[in-house]
Amino acid sequence: MNILHLNTYDTSGGAARASYRLHQGLLKSGVNSQQLVLRKSSQDPTIHVYSESRLVKRLRVIADQWPLNFYPHHSRAFSTHWVPNLVPQKIKNFNFDILHIHWINGLLIPEFLPKITSQPMVWTFQDMWAITGGCHYTQGCDLFMNQCGYCPQLDSSRQNDLSHQVWQRKKKAWCNFQPVIITPSSWLANQVKSSPLLGHCDVKIIPNGLDTDRYRVIPKPMARQILQLPQEKKVILAGGVSLLKEPHKGWDLLCETAQMLPPDDGRLWVIFGQQQAPGFEGLPVRCLGSLTDDVALALAYSAADVLVVPSRQETFGQVATEAMACGTPVVAFAGTGVQDIVDHYTNGYLAQAFDPADLAAGIGWVLRQGLELGKNARQKVERAFDLTVVVQRHLELYQSLINA
Predict the structure, then answer these.
(1) What element of type H or E holds 161?
(2) Rounded to an integer, what distance in angstroms lies between the CA atom of residue 206 and that of residue 184?
(3) How many angstroms separate the CA atoms of 158 and 144, rounded?
(4) Can you count the helices (H) and strands (E) in the chain?
(5) d(Cα 316, Cα 287) in Å, to the nearest integer?
(6) Span 54-77, mean pLDDT?
(7) End-to-end alpha-carbon separation of the chain, Å?
(8) N or C: which end of the chain has fewer CB within 10 A?
(9) Is the Cβ–Cβ distance between 37 and 47 less than 8 Å?
């Protein structure tokens, strides 16, 4: 079986890490899996780069972002993708039975997708961009269900704004486009099924996989000693590379939650992915900075007594599965993709959406429990999210498409 994956990055960012783990799992299972990416960080010879000169690449980025100049207050994560490239020609150099598309912003424009291959196509969503007029997370806006326009993330007061124009481009290009869509959670699957853009497609729910040998339980005293964290404290962990940058990640809700917890010298907040914790003034907090490798992350998760995921929108919740694989229970809000991961009162706590007081109550409840939550968390990951399980589900889907 020959699989070609398309992704903007090979290992940089959560979406890239998820696709790369799948790619590695497929290789271990004997599949001829290859990736074509725009930007490569690894030394993996099975990862191929779509090459452009530095000048062409820079001009392409400038041109692609040019329409946003008319919206000076636009959000950071808004993608139009209207400048074509030669990726469709590059794909012809590969022999594949299945084309598996992942996070492709900057790699392919919407108009290319229905035309790039006659082979079966699978598309894994790690955010909401494909069903919106340009944003990657709607942040509670439902205008993507009705052609967008008046876009709050563009700070737009016009119906025929850039978001509406991008939405219409997708609608025109994808009216007969029918890839099999994979979403990592039931929450995102429901969003896609309701979409006027891609609701006609077959949608499968397959979670992101995890190597449970890499993400494993490390004895808490050892993990804390290595990270120089106090042994006697109750450690509350939160983090991620975009926690502070993206509103949907809920940093403001986390700060409210932290301030609501009753004073207790026995607790310590530990934040990873950033060097500062604005909003935590007066609270015991330690910032670990960026943790970029699996070993460092596994140490952080294992050192914690609980992980808090304060997201308003989460298409899956990779940090939740990583923490649970390390035997750490998770507290999060109900109503996001994390709901597929956390079982209320069994391996964590699902707070009422998006109530900081209930999130604080959940943290307190988990900290009062024994070791059973952590054991349950590890068992859930082994059963549902282990990479071998997820790879097998992909293989079954691929084979069914080849046989069709």
Answers:
(1) none
(2) 5
(3) 15
(4) 12, 13
(5) 24
(6) 90
(7) 15
(8) C
(9) yes
Per-residue pLDDT reduced to its tens digit, 147-161: 999 999 999 999 999
220-384: CATH, from 1.10.260.30, 3.40.50.2000, 3.30.70.120, 6.10.140.1670: 3.40.50.2000
Token representation of residue 253 = 């809700």
Write down the mean pLDDT value for the chain.
95
Q: Which residues make up the CATH 3.40.50.2000 domain(s) of the chain?
A: 2-210+387-403, 220-384
What pLDDT, in 10s, does the model give residues 94-126?
999 999 999 999 899 999 999 999 999 999 999
In whole angstroms, give the CA distance from residue 284 to residue 274.
Answer: 16
Domain 2-210+387-403 part of CATH 3.40.50.10700: no
144 by DSSP, 3-state: which? helix
**pLDDT for residue 232 is more than 80:** yes
DSSP string, 341-393: TPPBTTTEEEESTT-HHHHHHHHHHHHTS-SHHHHHHHHHHHHHTBHHHHHHH
Q: Which of 396, 402, 321 is nearest to 26 (CA)?
A: 396
**pLDDT digits 0-9 by tens, 324-372:** 999 999 999 999 999 999 999 999 999 999 999 999 999 999 999 989 9
**Strand 285-289 versus strand 267-272 pairing type:** parallel
pTM metric for this prediction: 0.94
Supply the angle between the helices 318-325 and 372-384 in degrees, to the nearest 10: 120
